[in-house]
Amino acid sequence: MEKKRAEVADIDRSLYDFRYDDSGQEKLDGLTEEVVREISEKKNEPEWMLEHRLKSLEIYRSMPISDWGPSIEGLDTDHIVTYVKPNTEQQSDWDSVPDEIKDTFERLGIPQAERSYLAGVGAQYDSELVYHSMQESAAKMGIVYSGIEEALEGEYAELIREKFMTLIRPDDHKFAALHGAVWSGGSFVYVPKGVRLDYPLQSYFRLNAKGAGQFEHTLIIVEDDADLHFIEGCSAPKYNVANLHAGAVELFVGKRAHLRYSTIENWSKNMYNLNTKRSICAEEGEIEWISGSFGSHVGYLYPMSILAGRKSKSSFTGITFAGKGQNLDTGCKVVLAAPETSASVETKGISKGGGIQTFRSSVVATPNAEGSRASISCASLMLDDISRSDTIPAMDIRCKNVDVGHEATIGRIGDDKLFYLMSRGVSEEEARTMIVNGFAEPISKELPLEYAVEMNNLIKLEMEGAIG
User: Fold this and answer.
1) Residue 264 in 3-state DSSP?
2) Is 242 in contact with 75 (CB distance < 8 Å)?
3) I want to staple 307 with a disulfide (CB 3.0 to 4.6 A). Which of 26, 152, 215, 312 is the partner?
4) How far is CA 450 from CA 319, 363, 409, 441, 458, in A?
């Protein structure tokens, strides 16, 4: 009798692959100066922002596409839909959101999460925020959480101008320049000195339009001695044409402040996820990155921590799942730029069905990093003989008194582990499921499972038969 081969099912995307007709929505196609000016005009932006956009477009046109990672030849940015306006204005009352948009977020579990767990939530649909609210208790603490475009017209306009795209500069890479030219939507969060919020804030991005790009910008400032947990979720339905996500996240962490930034990205398999995320920490400040990358056709994602103050800290905890047709190049970057800084990285990668999963890390210890340390640990599990997993570390050490270590393991499910479990009455199928879930558990337990529906699709990996 032929041995039945194991299947580890792809993450079930049926929850996310619903869509609505977008024919009535206002759209801007292409990447021209006229399009950039029109986006700025629609948003009634200050002159400095238009100048920033036009300069970014100029930089974009002059920069080549990097060739060191997965191929993005299927992406034609010059003809992508750069702006899609939903058929609604931003609402603070959930009942006022149009039914089809409300249904989208309800099916993803966002309103339920807000009611039970969140201090505030923003929901972006295509290029604009459609819903935003914050609990009165958080507002009374002086916390500001709004759309970044809305904040550009208020009392924090100068602060935004001071910080906007200073961590992620348009000349950093081609897609940072693209973002600077056509960005739309996103969040602004300001936490005053000494304020500690006990409940998370959340922003959720849904890209519905076919052949479109989403370019939201998130700017978070956590002042000295403050504390915040911010959660970001993303999803999109599947189309037969390329979609693009090229957002930007800039995080400023003050002295002795703490920021935990959790992301669950479950884009569809026609998505090119070329997102950029960076943080900077002042003296004794701490940034925690929690990252789950489960979707997209091609992904480039490397959150960066700049430890600029003495005794500042960063930690990165991540998990990546690459299935059939996916090439996910993920990891993180750390710059030890002050004395006695410390960084830790722990990642897990799972690949199956010919999927390619690459962990890429960069640690730079500047001449000012005396007494600093960094530890990196990455483990990868391949569930068949046609998948691939790679680890590419880079370490640039420019001072003597630092301690930097890197550890990587890549393997398959071991026969000894199977034998141990099966000898105690566990079936082979159950044993494989237990091993995969046990492999992912140290990372997945850090993700916000209380409300993030996407994570259920990882925890409930279906195993059938045996991997031969």
Assistant:
1) strand
2) yes
3) 312
4) 18, 33, 30, 15, 14
pTM for the whole structure: 0.84
Q: Which residue, chain included where needed, has tokens 């002050």?
A: 338
Which has the higher per-residue pLDDT, 6 or 329? 329
User: Which tokens hold the place of 8?
Assistant: 């580890």
Q: Which range is most confident: 26-35, 52-61, 89-98, 315-324?
A: 52-61
- In b/e form, how buried is each residue of 118-140, taking b as 16+ CB within 10 angstroms? bbbbbbbbbbbbbbbbbbeebee
User: Which amino acid type is present at position 72?
Assistant: I
- 181 in helix, strand or coil? helix
Query: What gap in Å lies between CA 294 and CA 200, rounded to an integer?
Result: 22
Q: Closest Cα to residue 182, out of 246, 139, 232, 231?
A: 246
Q: What does the alpha-carbon distance between residue 236 and residue 456 come to, in Å, rounded to a whole number? A: 17
- Please, what is the Cα angle at 304 between 303 and 305, to 5 degrees? 130
158-178 pLDDT, tens digit per residue, is 999 999 999 999 999 999 999
Phi, psi of 319 (to 5 degrees): -140, 140
Q: Which residue has the tokens 């046109």?
A: 61
Q: What is the DSSP code (8-state) at residue 288?
A: E
Could you give the CA distance from residue 465 to residue 468 in angstroms, rounded to a whole number?
Answer: 9
- The amino acid at residue 79 is H
Task: Report the Cα 400 to chain-centroid distance in Å.
Answer: 34
| CB-CB contact of 428 with 463 (8 Å) | no
CA distances from 226 to 97, 163, 221, 315 (A): 33, 18, 10, 18
What is the DSSP pairing of strand 120-125 with strand 128-134? Answer: antiparallel
Report the candidate in 447, 451, 459, 448 with the shortest Cα–Cα distance to residue 106.
Answer: 451
Least confident residue range of 40-49, 259-268, 427-436: 427-436
Instruction: Convert the pLDDT of each residue in 299-316 to its tens digit.
Output: 999 999 999 999 999 999
Q: Which of 252, 66, 42 is nearest to 156 (CA)?
A: 252
Return the minimum-mean-pLDDT range out of 244-248, 274-278, 447-451.
Answer: 447-451
Q: Which of 97-106, 407-416, 428-437 has the highest mean pLDDT?
A: 407-416
